[in-house]
Amino acid sequence: MILPVYYWQLGIMLQSLHLQYFRSHEDLKIDFFDGCTLIVGPNASGKTSIIEAIHLLATGQSFRAGKVEEMVGFSAEWTRITGNLSALSGDITDEDAGEEPEQTELSVLLTRGMLQGKKTHHKHFSVNGINRQLHKMLGQLQTAVFRPEDMRIIEGSPSRRRRFLDEVIGSFDAEYLRSAKTYEQSLKRYNKLLETVRDNRQPTTILEYWERSMVKHGEYLQRQREQFLLATKQVSFAVRLQVEYKPSIITQERMDHYQERAVAAGHSLIGPHKDDFSVSCDVQDLWRGQLSQFHNVALYGSRGQQRLAVLWLKACQLNYIENQTGQKPLLLLDDIFSELDEENQQVVVKLINNHQAIVTSADQLVASFLPKNTAKLQLE
Questions:
Q1: How many whole angstroms separate alpha carbon 240 and alpha carbon 217?
Q2: Alpha carbons 128 and 136: distance in angstroms, whole number
């Protein structure tokens, strides 16, 4: 049986989006195509805000804003993002082919901390009109975002690569998000207490509780990161690449071993906040892929090789989310084609062909190399 493209392989599609007072959009409604939708507009027309809003619906997190208030329109005290999904329940069968898809409405309400004169939370989530905690909303919609900033995952700082790992795993794993938050809070508290111990204002026993917390949650983060990076070996791609995980392993034994030096330094010396990874390839001939010539592409690769390595990581992200959740991610491409040469553009187009995709660009010519059935939306 050949399934209608409308349902995609795993039966999830973003049908529409409604933005109210979200950044520069006071009241914007968009209907999306089941394949690729191209959003074209000049700079500052709000293209990236649309991508940000969709990602926010899926994860509860913004990839741009440091504070919630930054996303609320200047003249408003709240902003609401509403997305409608279509999905078939369970496995798609011959009998399902003629059925109307199930509908799900996701909504995120953001405030400045006050609503109608009363204090309130900054974030409110709902599914089909029923208030939900974030972890109850995760998994309804899977997304993978690709932005120009991502082209620096390979050559950028370790913190950029750690953010990439957190984005991949945290997009569907609520426990990972909780562990990451708790670990960060414990680390900050631990570092402050290290200073008091160094100044002889507290005994070293004051560190024990926070060390246990860091070990418990840090070990979970590193297990999940390792699992994802190991899974990259199974991804089919145009060229051969490989990744090496470089964890700053955290155990209670290592915390005890480094405690004296940590006290002297005034901050923790080990843990997932110091993790890194590297990607290697055949830097003499990327398309040949000879293992004896594999070297760290960040150090020895060309600009084009580094960008192709980023595309490989994104393909790994898509594959991993699908395998872990049973759902094809919605591919969100925010003005990246201007960063790519023709060869790499075609690699991205192949990814688009297998997913529902939303592409933004300031260049009308981008439509010429996207799939022929791409829908187009013009922003002013």
A1: 33
A2: 12
Specify the CATH number for 151-326; select among 1.25.40.20, 1.20.1050.90, 1.10.3430.10, 1.20.120.450. 1.20.1050.90
Write the CATH number of the domain with boundaries 1-142+327-380.
Answer: 3.40.50.300
Domain spans, the chain: 1-142+327-380, 151-326
Q: Do domains 1-142+327-380 and 151-326 have the same CATH topology?
A: no
Tell me the backbone φ, ψ of residue 363, rounded to 5 degrees. -105, 120
pLDDT tens-digit series, residues 206-248? 999 999 999 999 999 999 999 999 999 999 998 999 999 999 9
**Contact indicator for 29, 80 with CB cutoff of 8 Å:** no
Record the tokens describing residue 97, joined without a space. 């082919």
* 82-100 mean pLDDT: 62
Predicted TM-score of the model (pTM): 0.88
